[in-house]
Design goal:
By secondary structure, the protein is of the alpha/beta class. The chain folds into two domains: 36-192, Glucose Oxidase, domain 1 (3-Layer(bba) Sandwich), CATH 3.50.30; 195-397, 3-Layer(aba) Sandwich (Rossmann fold). It is built from ten helices and 25 strands.
């Protein structure tokens, strides 16, 4: 029944009246779930001989890489498209994955706001329980369908709690996923490859042309899209260039007001060309800000050392403290290497420290406009507690 108030506003009484006001009800058919038991058997094998049985979803493809774990409850879409995961088998510690599907793509400034790059960079995803049904207002397809489209395998039914404990105790290990009836792939250590060269843009791209008062040069060593979005939102143009671009020549011509060093995968010592570019920027006193791998590249540029962590930091719940203060932040992180704070030269000091293992989370110059963080202030996924660092960097450009 539908009646009206004194003002003429419809008053809906009873479920049948909803159709009178809103039109015919919309029926939503959730995708029919394929029973887990109907999926092909699969196995995850670690380099020490440990094996985990499960069922395949996504692409039925055998693959090898480095096995790492991520402690985030959500954010699997952003994580899988983060170039920092290149060549890795990502173990999700949260037990249920896939229940909100994969969003339809949305664009802003010529870049996706749904994904952090144009493709999945992780080699595989390992979960305890893959949700065969999904529900979310922005969903475009299921996680399994997306993995099939990207030719990336997944394995479900794995005891991820036990697997994570093994990786914490013994460290990240090489691993491979074998599909029932298939041939095991050869072992592969992605850290021996120049992964930066694989994920970096192949040609310069300018974003926000004519919309900013300053222009930032972004050295793309595996940049997430939200780094670009975060800069554009603060009124600067972004010139994104390949990792091995002739940055010194651009700085000599005065093309940009500042330098941004992006995140990225693998061993930072593989990106020697980018390190040389950072040295030039420091010599020319160009304001510089690094994120994740960018923290390690800045450290190498000033003569400091980096090293591989036992099992890395991956997730959206890593606590850090600003050195010399009591200011703590929860951050999003994704890295397997770190900076040795004790190797920092004169006039450089640690900026942030991880509260879990006391490793370095950032460095800065005592008085120059050079700084970097090991975590992700742009988040995606994760908290935006440290987004103010972008404001500080943009402020340095305009001094």
């Amino acid at each position: 029944m539908v009646s009206t108030s004194d003002s003429g506003t419809p008053i809906v009484q009873g479920a049948s009246a909803v159709a009178d006001v809103m039109g015919e009800p919309v029926r939503i058919d959730l995708p029919r779930a394929e029973p887990i038991a109907a999926r092909r058997r699969a196995m995850l094998e670690l380099e020490d001989g440990t094996t985990f049985q499960g069922r395949a979803f996504g692409a039925a493809t055998a693959v090898a890489g480095e096995t790492v774990f991520n402690t985030g409850m959500v954010g699997y879409v952003e994580s899988l498209t983060d170039p920092s995961y290149r060549g890795q088998l990502v173990v999700c510690t949260y037990p249920l994955i896939g229940n909100y599907g994969v969003p339809r793509d949305a664009q802003r400034d010529g870049l996706s706001t749904s994904f952090e790059s144009d493709q999945i960079h992780a080699s595989a995803i390992v979960v305890g329980d893959y949700s065969e049904t999904q529900s979310h207002w922005a969903q475009g397809r299921s996680l399994s369908e997306w993995l099939v489209d990207e030719q990336v395998p997944g394995i479900t039914g794995v005891d991820t709690r036990k697997l994570t404990q093994i990786l914490r105790e013994r460290g990240s290990m090489l691993g491979r996923i074998v599909i029932e009836g298939g041939v095991p792939p050869a072992w592969r250590d992605p850290n021996k490859d120049n992964l930066v060269a694989e994920v970096s843009t192949k040609a310069p791209v300018l974003y926000g042309e004519g919309k900013g008062k300053s222009r930032v040069l972004l050295i793309d060593t595996g940049a997430k899209f939200n780094i670009v979005h975060s800069l554009l939102e603060r009124g600067v143009e972004v010139l994104r260039v390949p990792w091995d671009d002739d940055v010194p020549a651009r700085l000599e011509r005065g093309e940009v007001a500042g330098l941004m060093l992006s995140n990225g995968p693998g061993d930072p010592t593989m990106a020697g060309k980018a390190v040389e570019s950072v040295r030039t920027a420091i010599a020319k006193n160009v304001p510089t800000f690094g994120i994740c791998l960018g923290n390690q590249l800045l450290a190498l540029a000033i003569g400091a050392k980096t090293y591989k962590l036992k099992y890395g930091h991956r997730g959206q719940n890593q606590p850090v403290i600003e050195c010399g203060t009591t200011r703590c932040f929860v951050t999003s992180q994704n890295h397997g290497y770190a900076v040795d704070s004790h190797s920092l030269p004169r006039d450089w000091r640690p900026w942030f420290e991880n509260l879990n293992d006391k490793t370095n989370e950032g460095i800065r110059h005592s008085y120059g406009p050079f700084r970097s963080v090991q975590f992700h202030p742009e988040a995606c996924p994760g908290p935006v507690d440290t987004a103010f660092l972008f404001d500080e960097f943009v402020g340095m450009l305009r001094r």
